[in-house]
Amino acid sequence: MLDSEQWRSLVIAGSQTLCPACRSTNLTIGACAIGSMTVHQEYVCEDCQHEFTALFALTGCYEGHTEQ
Ligand SMILES: [Zn+2]
To answer: Which domain holds residue 27?
Structure first.
């Protein structure tokens, strides 16, 4: 099992969210809780059924909205 810092380093290195238990990228995105400074995004791993939450922190803002 990756700890929080190891997991973060791997996600940044690969620009891809992965399971901290088995490192699979076969994830289902669940509920998202948005606060004023943090976002908690839930994931379930489809390969080992591990449930985890990614914690995002506020880094800035920009004009307009992302093109979808
Ligand atoms: Zn997994």
So the answer is: 4-57
